[in-house]
Design goal:
Belongs to the PPR family. P subfamily. TPR repeats lie at residues 351-384. This protein is mostly helical. 71% of the residues lie in helices and 0% in strands. It is built from 29 helices and no strands. The protein has helices spanning 2-10, 14-20, 24-33, 41-50, 57-69, 73-85, 93-107, 109-113, 115-119, 122-134, 141-153, 158-169, 176-188, 192-204, 212-224, 228-241, 247-260, 263-273, 284-293, 297-309, 317-329, 333-343, 351-363, 367-379, 389-402, 405-415, 423-435, 441-449, 456-464. The longest helix has 15 residues, at 93-107. Residues 1-25 and 32-37 have low confidence and may be disordered.
Length: 467
């Protein structure tokens, strides 16, 4: 009967969700997703866990494979990422190979390449490469580009030439991503002759289109080794090729010219290109940060005032954040506080705005103010935002050192609104509760719901704390 009702409800998507019904967890997902045209799996999984439902790694792996088989690549990728990001399961080489393939399909090659750069795990990436070879998935440049990128990030430059030689032996063409990644590796190694060799090869080969992004990379390489004149030459090439309009290209130019230290050129670029962009598309925040980097606080203030004068409807606090960071680095906290107070008149500052102040106070060792502004940040309902980890740790360490366990509990209570707590935060909460003479059993139960087993640290509270 249940199957019949679902089949009547689900229309063309029935086949996928029919199979989901074969498992209690998956049938719950199917039934709760059936009321919408596009099933949303993650909210249902979150609700399932919140209600005490068990989720095993093997079940999630099966669900990923099932969704992939039915070409639901977006959903499969969401489940794969939820499996590790929210449930803290380890990613096996097979899981990683599947995720790489999904990222490649959903987001494209560049995002797929970055997965192990983010994890910074050469061993995992090499294991995944071997798995992909066994599965016949290493017949294109994609997995090689991934490894080249990772070797570059980890300084293992000798392995890159071996990979490129293997590609040529296997008849796998060196595409623009391969050469780009090789160029990045030379830049990482401060090998300018090597970088120039790749750049010249790309310029001379009609199969490659050298765009402004390549010249921006070359400029970055020259800036890294202090070759300012050559960097400026690359920036001129970049200017000739880049689109006159576009926030991203203008931000690249502004940032790179700031790195040359030529403030006059920075203002020239700003005054030239902002005229060809709509006001909302002009990266005022980037210009403010660049001027602050060149110790031109007054110039940064003028740019901010120019931007603020145009804010008739929408006020983007991220632009203010750039000025706050500049003020805090200079120790100008009175100016920072005044700027926030003025901006907050009739508006609600972003969580990141309070967080910028909290970071500044933390760096200047003004911990009571850092804690106060961190709490304000955590109290703002801002989807997707998380506090700066070093600031959060410093504030919690300070409170623990002061014996302010109520303060710790307050901050962690606010953190719960952002998502599941980490093991470290649970340990802090256990210590605070035990020190306050409170029961720890509820906390230990919640740890289990969030996928944590009671470790040695937790058992201490079971033995010594009130239950």
């Amino acid at each position: 009967m249940v199957l019949y009702l679902h089949s009547a409800l689900l229309k063309p998507q029935t086949h996928l969700l029919f199979l989901l019904l074969l498992h209690p967890l998956l049938s719950t997902i199917a039934s709760r997703s059936s009321e919408t045209q596009k099933p949303r799996f993650l909210p249902v999984l979150e609700q399932w866990v919140t209600e005490g439902g068990a989720v095993e790694k093997q079940e999630l792996q099966s669900l990923v494979r099932l969704l992939k088989d039915f070409r639901r690549f977006n959903h499969a990728l969401e489940i794969s990422q939820w499996m590790t990001d929210r449930r803290y399961f380890d990613l096996s080489p097979s899981d990683a190979a599947a995720r790489l393939n999904l990222i490649h399909r959903v987001h494209g090659l560049e995002d797929a390449e970055n997965i192990y750069v983010q994890e910074n795990s050469v061993e995992k990436a090499e294991a995944t490469m071997q798995k992909m070879k066994k599965l016949g998935m290493a017949k294109t440049s994609f997995p090689y580009n991934m490894l080249i990128n990772l070797y570059s990030q980890n300084g293992e430059h000798e392995k890159i030439n071996i990979l490129m030689q293997e590609m040529e032996e296997n008849g796998i063409p060196l595409d623009k991503y391969t050469l780009r990644n090789r160029m990045i590796a030379y830049i990482a190694a401060s090998d300018m002759p090597g970088m120039e060799t790749i750049l010249n090869r790309m310029e001379e080969d009609s199969n490659f289109i050298v765009d402004w992004k390549i010249y921006s990379m070359a400029a970055s390489g020259y800036l890294k080794v202090g070759m300012i004149k050559k960097a400026c030459s690359m920036l001129k090439m970049m200017e000739r090729m880049m689109p006159l309009q576009g926030r991203k290209s203008l931000e690249f130019l502004i940032t790179l010219y700031a790195n040359t230290g030529h403030k006059g050129e920075l203002y020239r670029v700003w005054n030239t290109y902002k005229q060809s962009n709509e006001p909302m598309d002009v990266p005022y925040g980037c210009m403010i940060s660049s001027l602050a980097k060149l110790d031109d606080i007054e110039g940064a203030e003028r740019i901010f005032e120019e931007w603020e004068s145009q804010c008739t409807e929408y006020y983007d606090f991220r632009v203010l954040n750039r000025l706050l960071v500049a003020y805090c680095k200079k120790g100008l906290f009175d100016k920072a506080e005044s700027a926030v107070k003025k901006a907050a008149e009739g508006r609600i500052p972003y969580a990141s705005t309070w967080n910028a102040l909290a970071m500044g106070y933390t760096e200047s060792k003004q911990m009571p103010k850092a804690i106060e502004t961190l709490k304000k940040a955590l109290s703002v309902d801002r989807w997707g935002w998380v506090p700066d980890s070093s600031t959060l740790t410093a504030c919690l360490d300070y409170l623990e050192g002061q014996g302010d366990f109520e303060g710790i509990e307050e901050i962690i209570s606010l953190l719960k609104n952002l998502g599941p707590l980490s093991r470290d935060l649970y340990h802090r909460l256990l210590r605070a509760s035990a020190a306050s003479g409170k029961s720890v059993s509820i906390i230990l139960d919640q740890m289990k719901v969030d996928g944590f087993t009671a470790d040695e640290e937790a058992y201490k509270f079971l033995e010594t704390g009130p239950s």
